[in-house]
């Protein structure tokens, strides 16, 4: 596919964790796709038919669609002009004070606006602060563009994109019947179930989805700490209460609840509601407080100042190489202050030069290995290794871990 060729879809932010699987899936279904991204390294990687990050099932299809000439990546913003559909999936992070950048998507669209052309469908797919779709509609109208605008949120979980993109129902929202028709047709390439909402309803639907999940994890973590402080095993209680009792089947296990979406989307919702979101804010305190709780409890059992602690797993969830907002790094910061030394390992993460191989962490303490191990991420690799030192396992991954 030459750089000038017209395509069915251009994805803005197309080399990211959401944009790339989406582009691969559209191309897999026969559409021609261009990924526009500011990240030149990621574009080069994709054009070599390699993934810039791990996403199970994506590599094989990427090779096929690149070879077939149906997908390519570029840093050239003019590529936006040569597509029937423009899908925007740039990141929407919060700042160091947990404030969402209300103008992130708007600013990205300002950047591409000179390249939007009449007759296009503009699909917003980032998880946005409520009201952003309306803001974009106004921006497009102010520029005198005849461009249809729709908001179609992404609801996949990282690591499951290549199945969930084809399985999850798609929410489509727009004030324009033509945009609804076009967006519905576009996403029917992936899934047959399409649900229609008003744009503001859809913006809240996406934020509610992530916040609900985050609150559930916080509930589990609070109950875990409560049982643990009382000298009882939360997982034993959870297993019993959920057994053949469907109303409680969705109570999660305890563990670090983090990553690039759940926390920041809870904060987006809090900001939207004038910082009045006690349940969400309490969930932040509980989930973000868990590493501190674990270390405080360990201090009651061990003299950490005289120990090397090994942290097993640095990504924010099992089987992933993504360290964004991972609580393993918060645990590391606390332990670097409390322990004699900290060793960190992860079989998936490639971007952190301070990581050491698992064997180095599991080496005898007399030869530099850890005196105490904490499973921070429940990677399957940590179910079955053998060691003589205590293993802290709040995830209940193994038999016989030490209680915190
Ligand atoms: N990661 C997930 O599992 C997930 C799931 C559902 C929804 N979301 C939402 O999707 C959005 C994207 O998340 P992500 O995890 O893919 O982020 P990401 O950081 O992995 O990807 C964003 C991409 O956009 C590019 N980019 C940023 N600004 C740009 C611009 N102005 N022009 C062109 N490219 C630009 C970046 O270089 C990056 O490659 C966020 O709103 C997120 O909340 C993420």
Short overview:
The chain is of the alpha/beta class. It has helices spanning 19-28, 40-47, 58-67, 104-113, 132-142, 161-167, 177-187, 199-229, 234-242, 262-272, 278-301, 327-338, 358-362; strands spanning 7-12, 33-36, 71-74, 83-88, 121-124, 148-151, 170-173, 194-197, 308-312, 341-345, 372-375, 391-392.
Describe this structure in words.
The protein is built from 13 helices and 12 strands. It has helices at 19-28, 40-47, 58-67, 104-113, 132-142, 161-167, 177-187, 199-229, 234-242, 262-272, 278-301, 327-338, 358-362; strands at 7-12, 33-36, 71-74, 83-88, 121-124, 148-151, 170-173, 194-197, 308-312, 341-345, 372-375, 391-392. The protein has a 6-stranded parallel beta sheet, with helices on both faces. The protein has a 4-stranded parallel beta sheet with strand order 10-9-11-12. Strands 7-8 form a two-stranded parallel sheet. Helix 8 (199-229) runs parallel beside helix 11 and helix 10 crosses helix 11. The radius of gyration is 23 Å and the shape is globular. The chain starts with 6 loop residues before the first strand and ends in a 12-residue tail after the last strand. The model has no long low-confidence stretch (mean pLDDT 96). Residues 12-13, 15-19, 36-39, 42, 89-92, 108, 111, 126-127, 154, 156-158, 260-261 line the site of nicotinamide-adenine-dinucleotide.
